[in-house]
Amino acid sequence: MEFESSYFTHPGYVRDLNEDSFFCDDNNSLWVVCDGMGGHNNGNFASRLITDLFDDILFTDSFNTNVELIQNCLVQAHKILQKKVNNSNSNSIMGTTIVLLYIFGNRAICIHCGDSRCYLYKNGLKCLTKDHAKQLNGQKVLTSAINAPNKKLTFEKKSFYIENYDKFLLCSDGLYDFINEDIISYSMKQKNIHKSMDILIKNVLKTKAEDNITAILISRSSK
């Protein structure tokens, strides 16, 4: 099956810097959204480090081997962040969430760490990821991310089989924090993913949009 994607990113109305980043490779059926954390450009560096590393993957004809290559990129990114923080001689935090979808034939895997999400639309909307976050003193705090100086790297993996008309949405919390899942579901039920994206953009930009926003819609190619 061949797939196509539609993407959107926006800094929102409060922050000057967009610390989100994304990666779209329709040819190899790999899509990634990262939401950087750390401030002072650290989050920007961390999120773009992840997406830049995926540019260098040389995929094989094996699903399992390719998943291993993807995971190696995450391990490499974690090591780079650790080294950068250690060399800075500071108590700075540098990290990023990640949500990733890889499809190979009718097999798929979603890898995530943090609170960026993957939604599946199949006769209705379903969130495939569980947020790694908790509320503390009225604020959301991540319980897991690819970050330094945290020495342990953990991420969740969900493998599954897909059907021809499955659609997917990868997004940072800047999208789902400001529009509800009814709007997301309505957008994803549209036949054309570019029309779906237009609906998401129109609705999220009507809100306060106080965070960076990134979204990728993926569906089987209509060509």
Automatic annotation (TrEMBL):
<dbReference type="GO" id="GO:0004722">
    <property type="term" value="F:protein serine/threonine phosphatase activity"/>
</dbReference>
<protein>
    <submittedName>
        <fullName>Serine/threonine-protein phosphatase</fullName>
    </submittedName>
</protein>
<dbReference type="InterPro" id="IPR036457">
    <property type="entry name" value="PPM-type-like_dom_sf"/>
</dbReference>
<feature type="domain" description="PPM-type phosphatase">
    <location>
        <begin position="4"/>
        <end position="220"/>
    </location>
</feature>
<dbReference type="InterPro" id="IPR001932">
    <property type="entry name" value="PPM-type_phosphatase-like_dom"/>
</dbReference>
<dbReference type="InterPro" id="IPR015655">
    <property type="entry name" value="PP2C"/>
</dbReference>
<dbReference type="Pfam" id="PF13672">
    <property type="entry name" value="PP2C_2"/>
</dbReference>
